[in-house]
Design a protein that fits this description.
about 400 residues, mainly alpha
Amino acid sequence: MPDSRSQSIRNIGLLSAVQALGGSNSSIIMSVAALAAVSFAPDRSAATLPVTAMILGLALTTSSATMIIYRLGRTRGLMVGAAIAIPASIIATLAVMFGQFYLFAAGLFLVGMSGAFMQQVRFAAADSVAPELKSQAISWVMFGGVAAGFLGPQLSALSRTWIPGAEYAASFMVIGVISALSVLVLSATRLAPTIAPGGSQDKGRPLSVLLRQPEIVLPMLGGALSYALMTLIMVAAPLAMVHLCGHSPTDAAGAIQWHVVAMFAPSFVTGAIIKRIGASLVTAMGLLLIIACAVIALNGITVAHFTTTLILLGVGWNFGFIGSTAMLATSYRPQEAGRVQAVNEQVVFGSSAIASLGSGFLLQFVGWEAINMLAIPVACLTIVLLGLGTLRRASA
């Protein structure tokens, strides 16, 4: 635990800045990676595979990233993670310059590995404050992503033509600069000490027991499906706008910009809402907003329809993901944190990787409308399961 309230506030501010920088990397990739790849992909349906590679890198590294952070300490572990994206950005830039599709995917895979460390920022904040402040700490750190919503798409658009003859190549070089800044900001943090796995006599409940607890399984489910549905729709949207509906790349970048802003802007109040009505209900509200975004997408293909869809999708993700994280953060003991967080990240980002992998193929073979139709029953089922879990806890 930090030594003082002022240290806690300082850490939250610095971690919010890290969230803004790390989120900018992701929003750059989400804005332009598929558009960059489509010109040298082996097939147009494969254009989203580099984005999927990033998410796979994130998903496959989550457990290792968590354990490294718990071994090295939060500050040093997060710095290592941020630094991985520096050489990754060079690889991605060169791949675009020379039209090397699989090298491009490899570079984004490494960016995803870096992102696996950055996803631990919200837990670093939650575990460094008093229990009653956890949801607010998570929300304030996630609020840093609002800056990412503006920085990422704007930087990708600004740098799109900096390297002549290699459109979008410089956009990926920007990721290296941002990551170097993240390392510098992280070096100034003083976070709560970690309890390394196996480092204390009381190791808490075995993982097999923890994964049978509804208060742990349900937040994992809520977080995984909120993230997967968001990824499914978001990854497909820029391609649908540009290549299916004839909108400009600038329109697509603008829609993604407002999507990323909507993902993080509600964080200013999400923590307070959770404190007032409960994390489970906030998670369900997020899933309802995802249903609403799918309904709007099914009713038109103008820029306004896409932008409104992506804004609602972003707010829905915010409520669903932060609500699920807040539910989970109160369900384990300190000595169980590393194991629970590692499994949660694996489940959440593994689901997101599957959604990203399927997004491009679904868009190519069944269309934009079918993707949104699929999201509705999945979100409805998740809401039902969350409701049953709430009733079970109330009757216990």
